[in-house]
Design goal:
Layout (H helix, E strand, L loop, with lengths): L13 H8 L3 H8 L7 H14 L5 H6 L6 E7 L6 H13 L3 E7 L3 H14 L4 E4 L16 E4 L17 H12 L4 E5 L6 H17 L3 E5 L5 H12 L9 E4 L2 H13 L9 E3 L16 E4 L1 H16 L11 E4 L10
Helix pairs in contact: 1-2, 1-3, 5-11, 7-8, 9-10
């Protein structure tokens, strides 16, 4: 049979072979690499489709994939609001190392993103791919003849924090700082515990209060809302004065604002009567009276860390130690425990 698609004179593509065999194009790629793990029946279907279509691999394209392009692909989800800073950080590192960046967008879920990643990895256009879109677990690989893949698994498909972005450790630092200022009775107002970030912040709070053996460490389970802060203050007001928490560690700035407003409605002063902290470093927090103690997440550093991992994979070097992403900003809403 002449090379091409059923006498059309056009070279058959790997996609057409995959369609004829009823498999994915990745499976055809595995066949062409003589992957020993393929099932015999799958191998036979692909072989038959190749014979039927007269498919021949594009050797010039394959040879191109063995050379470095000095280009890195970055995959973003279609809703990339949360990834803009991370992309900027990734570009910082890549350009400093002499790489050009090509940005790709993807619609759909993690599986759709992974399919798109494999298309790019097989294209020969880039040396490596950094996915800032969610991918299925355990999809970071480097295959011969294919670009290396590194995923920054810090947000899921609903933009909920995961991985390093969900680390709750700074809450422990806040508790320790307040303890050093004389506080012995605490309350933590959680975010929505469906989020890993909320669960991890609660865990860090509990571990810190247990380690310090504080007098009282209450937890108020709530959602990410100002109303949750108001509700927590009403609960505190119903307690005997000598048992009330003197410090509220909120899981977000919005919750902390609710705590502060609720305290003022009761005639309490912040931080003289009640110290309050949040998380998110919303820019308005610096302009509150008093300014809000909070935690700042450095999403730009997230991108730098992820790109550094990818470059280490490309160079077959040990993975670098990652820079810290979250920092406590101590401000006026926290102070010494009341007498």
């Amino acid at each position: 049979m002449a090379e091409g698609v059923a006498g059309s004179g056009r070279r058959a593509t790997i996609w057409q072979v995959a369609e004829a065999a009823g498999v994915s194009h990745q499976t055809v790629s595995r066949y062409l690499r003589a992957d020993p793990g393929m099932k015999p029946q799958t191998r036979e279907k692909v072989r038959a489709a190749i014979d039927e279509l007269g498919y021949r691999p594009n050797l010039s394209a394959r040879s191109m994939r063995t050379r470095r392009s000095n280009r890195i692909g970055v995959l973003l989800p279609s809703d990339s609001m949360f990834r803009a800073s991370a992309l900027s950080g990734a570009i910082d590192i890549a350009t400093a190392e002499g790489y050009a960046i090509e940005v790709f967008a993807v619609e759909g879920d993690a599986r759709a993103a992974f399919d798109r990643v494999l298309q790019i990895a097989d294209s020969g256009q880039v040396d490596g791919i950094l996915a800032l879109a969610p991918l299925p677990p355990d999809t970071e690989h480097s295959y011969p003849g294919r670009a290396a893949i590194v995923a920054s698994a810090d947000y899921d498909e609903r933009t909920r924090s995961m991985g390093a972005m969900a680390d709750g450790t700074p809450i422990g630092e806040i508790v320790e700082g307040l303890h050093a200022a004389g506080h012995r009775r605490f309350l933590h107002v959680t975010g929505d515990l469906e989020f890993a970030s909320a669960r991890n912040r609660r865990t860090a709070y509990v571990e810190a209060t247990q380690r310090l053996d504080v007098e009282s460490a209450l937890v108020h389970v709530a959602l990410w809302s100002e109303a949750a802060g108001h509700e927590a203050v009403r609960m505190i007001a119903e307690m005997p004065r000598g048992e009330r928490p003197t410090a509220v560690v909120a899981a977000s700035d919005l919750i902390a604002v609710g705590v502060i407003n609720g305290a003022r409605e009761l005639g309490w002063s912040v931080p003289e009567d009640l110290s309050v902290s949040g998380w998110d470093a919303h820019y308005l927090g610096a302009f509150l009276q008093p300014s809000l103690t909070t935690v700042k997440d450095d999403r730009r550093q997230l991108g730098r860390n992820a790109m550094s991992r990818l470059l280490a994979v490309l160079r077959d070097e040990p993975l670098p130690e990652e820079e810290v992403l979250s920092t406590v900003l101590w401000r006026g809403s926290t102070g010494p425990a009341p007498d």
